[in-house]
Design a protein that fits this description.
Layout (H helix, E strand, L loop, with lengths): L1 H11 L3 E12 L2 E2 L7 E3 L3 E18 L8 E10 L6 H6 L1 E9 L1 E10 L3 H4 L18 E2 L4 E2 L2 E8 L11 E7 L7 E10 L4 E9 H5 E2 L4 E2 L7 E2 L4 H15 E3 L2
Parallel strand pairs: 1-13, 11-16
Antiparallel strand pairs: 1-2, 1-6, 3-4, 4-5, 4-7, 4-10, 7-12, 8-9, 10-11, 13-17, 14-15
């Protein structure tokens, strides 16, 4: 009997490792950081960014056939570049770490951009202060919805090099359950026992604001602000962010 119990215990042991996902923000080919740097936009304007953040729901590693099963990493995470305020910090990136992942080779990373509908039906008071959805500033009480993404900055539209209070304030606070969709990033991820695997995910804010293939873009002069009121703006930005701006890096 003793030998049988020991054998069962050994059989149930699962080797695990950890995964670090490093989100690195860019604006085109330039490292993205807040406040300290101006970025050219479409040749006739410049912008200094102050905030860029978004939620990811149902963050999951995809399995590889029958060999490795999918692994759910997290129901909800917040990715914010708000505290990244130097080039050094931008190159280092914003990291999320996940432990206790069964070892093996996974075939991709899947996530939903924004807050999944079942979670979007909750509110900040349902969570402890350390949880992502406890952020009161990322919730619209009147709309009973979380804000999927925040993009804020100051634009210099007359090219005088000034970004003060007299210049254009950019504010895009967007999100609603009908916009929630999942995205899959194919990538081979090897989780090894007692070690940490690191992957880089690039987030290009410029690609969230323009589609060069179609020649469409967010015009700061026409629509400097949107709080999920203009479908042409929020559908464009959310779709671009999900489908074009986020990619696997090196």
């Amino acid at each position: 009997m003793s030998l049988f119990i020991t054998a069962c215990d050994q059989k149930e042991e699962i080797s695990t490792g950890s995964l670090e996902i490093v989100f690195k923000g860019t604006f085109g080919n330039e490292p993205l950081y807040m406040f300290g740097r101006s970025y050219d936009y479409r040749g006739d304007a410049a912008v200094k960014w102050q905030l860029f953040q978004f939620f990811l729901s149902d963050l999951e590693l995809l399995g590889s056939g029958n060999a490795v099963k999918p692994h759910m990493l997290s129901a909800i995470e917040s990715v914010s570049f708000g505290d990244i305020q130097s080039e050094e910090e931008a190159l280092e990136g914003y990291a999320l770490r996940f432990n206790d992942i069964e070892t093996g080779t996974y075939s991709g990373l899947q996530f939903g951009l924004g807050v999944a509908p079942e979670l979007n039906a909750t509110q900040p008071s349902d969570y402890t202060p350390s949880e992502p959805l406890a952020q009161v500033s990322s919730y619209w009480e009147a709309a009973s919805s979380y804000i999927y993404t925040k993009i804020e900055g100051n634009a210099d539209l007359d090219n005088d090099g000034q970004f003060g209070e007299d210049e254009e304030k950019l504010t895009y606070h967007l999100g609603a359950s009908e916009l929630f969709q999942k995205r899959t990033l194919p990538v081979t991820i090897d989780i090894r026992e007692n070690s940490t695997t690191s992957i880089v995910v690039n987030v290009d804010l410029l690609k969230a604001l323009e589609n060069t293939a179609e020649g469409t873009f967010i015009d700061f002069r026409q629509t400097p602000r949107d709080h999920h009121k203009n479908p042409d703006v929020y559908n464009f930005v959310i779709t671009q962010l999900r489908e074009s701006a986020i990619s696997i890096g090196n």
